[in-house]
Amino acid sequence: MIPAPYLLYLGHSADFIGIKTSRGLATFRRDDCVGEFRHDDCPLTLDLPRLTMAEGAAAGAKTLVLGIANSGGSMGEDLIQDAIAGLEAGMNIASGLHQRLRDEPRLVKLAESKGLQLFDVRDPPADLKVGNGYARAGRRLLTVGTDCSVGKMYATIAIADAIRARGIKADFRATGQTGILIAGAGVPIDAVVADFISGGIEMLAPARDDDGWDVIEGQGSLFHPSFAGVSTGLLHGAQPEALVLCHDPSREHMRGLPGRKLPSLAECLEANLQVARLTSPDVRAVGICLNTSGLGREQALELCKMTEAALGLPCTDPIAFGVEAIVDAL
Amino acid sequence: MIPAPYLLYLGHSADFIGIKTSRGLATFRRDDCVGEFRHDDCPLTLDLPRLTMAEGAAAGAKTLVLGIANSGGSMGEDLIQDAIAGLEAGMNIASGLHQRLRDEPRLVKLAESKGLQLFDVRDPPADLKVGNGYARAGRRLLTVGTDCSVGKMYATIAIADAIRARGIKADFRATGQTGILIAGAGVPIDAVVADFISGGIEMLAPARDDDGWDVIEGQGSLFHPSFAGVSTGLLHGAQPEALVLCHDPSREHMRGLPGRKLPSLAECLEANLQVARLTSPDVRAVGICLNTSGLGREQALELCKMTEAALGLPCTDPIAFGVEAIVDAL
């Protein structure tokens, strides 16, 4: 386990989505966050105290969380220098980037000499097996999306919480670095070797017979040409009885790919149901989650109503309006 | 490059498909193979001289190729002992298994002390990028399958050869360990980190403007719950203008999954075209390749004719009848 409390790293980031790991911790584990570290050119804030490395350590931070995500997940010299400064100040370092802290000899050496730890959250379990798709016991819900970073993790956590609030067992099953940091466990599914995608999810959400739900965090999108392989394996491994489709209505093109249009909700839902049927023939869609943070409350409600009417499914913004309608549909 | 000639390892294998890497080399690089190594309980042969390790080395073998493939790709103690014997006899070792030779300290130590090399063919390139799906120049054909191990590699090599025989440039682009050993290059796509599947194929078959073809080896199947994520990313990264569907009519269930039925050819073709359209909107199917090795010649011809009539596409067995009809359709 990664020692809390945390100092959240924003670095030089000017991309709200790029800091999603730091933001996720600030939202769901706020009591464990002493502050945020950002450079002068970073226009973003998580409304936590802005602290230097030394101030963060003095405020009790045990771990500096490099909670930024960039496509490809590499680590620039800037980031390495900041990680070095974090270690010098006496904090462990945690990172969810593809490029590993342990592959940077300067960090390894310094951490060792200081008796501190490096946590590569994206390291997959060593004992993965290939999936088999055989029917297994248990109730499973999976969030899917029209694109990457459209709010799947938020929706997943909200649904797991709402099921539990009704006295039914439910576990949030994390598949990305942010979710894993929040939950304290999970399988970083975009980082496993390609042959083990579905098998990794079968391990994350194994058969259960306690009438409880595994609420599984989706990744990517069947319509994102960079990552659809991950989304496909996730659908097959999850063997979900229920799908929730997540969408950001303000997204103008697929993330990272100017010019590539998003699919329609209906087209996206149908494609996900079709792929899911390979291992879960009776899979059904139970709701739509919109990220309406860019809209006013009235506009947002209106959009949810219109979407509900168009698709015949409950539609909500999990943060603005909760997920009760979707949990009712379960 | 892996030094030839080779001694091909069959070990204790009793599974004709399980020895496909050794068999591929015996078929397509036969002049480079001095013999086969098998234990007494191995009922298979590649019709090469059966040699001990010492005899193989004496016959000039520079490398022992551990050309067996098992689901999951682990390396048992038997295999390690045989690899040790190969090194003791003075041969380098090459392996396409997921589990790496270099992760077995006994092999690393012995190879070092003998001045021999260990080749992990399944090591992906270090500089992979995520795919982007943007339209790129060049003509590309991809083989897809109803299942794993149904003859995609054979079909791909045959098609590349047949295009070249007509005076048009064509390159076989290998995506699996067997193909990579045959071609001497390629990207082991089932071994890359999941986020890089489509990007790995974009690197393997980059834009080209010489009117030549990239003939890309498919992997897995959209209908195989263990590996469909790989097949999906491969389709997106390949951005193929043409698909060839490969099928083994004798297959009773999806490979490794008793009880799971194969899709129909029509259903499989339609699903592949649909997924491919994300990055190649005008993709078309140009032919069907059947592995009819279990049938008599008359039966095989009859089956090809029936399939041709049913699907409206040229159908052939690449080994028995060649691929001219498919190349005509290009």
Oligomer: homodimer
Q: What structural class is derived from the secondary structure elements of chain A?
A: alpha/beta
**Count of individual helical segments of chain A:** 12
Strand arrangement, largest sheet of chain A?
A: 7-8-6-9-10-11
Q: Helix content range of the residues of chain A, please?
A: 25-40%
The span between the termini of chain A is 33 Å
List the domain count of chain A as a whole number.
2
| Radius of gyration of chain A, whole Å | 20 Å
Question: Can you tell me the CATH architecture of the largest domain in chain A?
Answer: 3-Layer(aba) Sandwich
**Strand fraction of chain A:** 15-25%
CATH level 4 superfamily of the largest domain in chain A = P-loop containing nucleotide triphosphate hydrolases
Task: Predict the CATH topology of the largest domain in chain A.
Answer: Rossmann fold
Mean pLDDT of chain A: 95
> Poorly predicted ranges of chain A (pLDDT <50, ≥5 residues)?
none
Elements of chain A, N to C (H/E): EHEHEHEHEEHEHHEHEHEHEHH
Tell me, what's the shape of chain A? globular
Largest interface: pair, residues per side: A-B, 43 and 43 residues
CATH class of the largest domain in chain A, named Alpha Beta
Instruction: Tell how many strands the DSSP assignment of chain A holds.
Output: 11
How can the largest sheet of chain A be summarized? Answer: 6 strands, parallel
